[in-house]
Amino acid sequence: MGVETPVQDVAMDEPIDLRDPYPMFARRRAEGGVFRGSVMDWSKTPDSLKPENLYGAVSFDAVNRVFRDGKV
């Protein structure tokens, strides 16, 4: 039989109102959901590791179409 230890209240950070943590994604979705490049363009990924002719899909409809149609 195990021993139970009472859980003490843990101090939590106050919640914050973060309306849009990813403004780049919001802008790309507003522009149509597909863009030339990838999220690696905003990262510290070296150019030598970035593929050429890459497109990013960031809206639900764009991602859904890409997954359903391999020719897109």
Overview of this protein structure:
This protein has 72 residues and is an alpha+beta fold. The chain has a domain at 28-56. It is 24% helix and 8% strand.
Q: Widest sheet: strand order?
A: 1-2
Distance between the termini: 60 Å
Gyration radius over CA: 21 Å
Average pLDDT across residues? 80
Query: Order of SSEs, N→C?
Result: HEEH
Structural class: alpha+beta
Q: Which sheet architecture does the biggest sheet show?
A: 2 strands, antiparallel
For the secondary structure, the number of strands is 2
Helix content percent band = 10-25%
Low-pLDDT stretches: none
Q: What is the percentage of strand-forming residues?
A: 5-15%
Overall geometry comes to elongated
- Number of alpha- plus pi-helical segments: 2
Q: How would you summarize this macromolecular structure in one to three sentences?
A:
It is built from 2 helices and 2 strands, in the order H-E-E-H. The chain is an alpha+beta fold and 72 residues long. The protein has a domain at 28-56.
Highlighted features:
single chain, 72 residues, alpha+beta, two-stranded antiparallel sheet, 2 helices, 2 strands, 8% strand, elongated
Secondary structure layout:
Blueprint: H1 23-30, E1 34-36, E2 55-57, H2 60-68
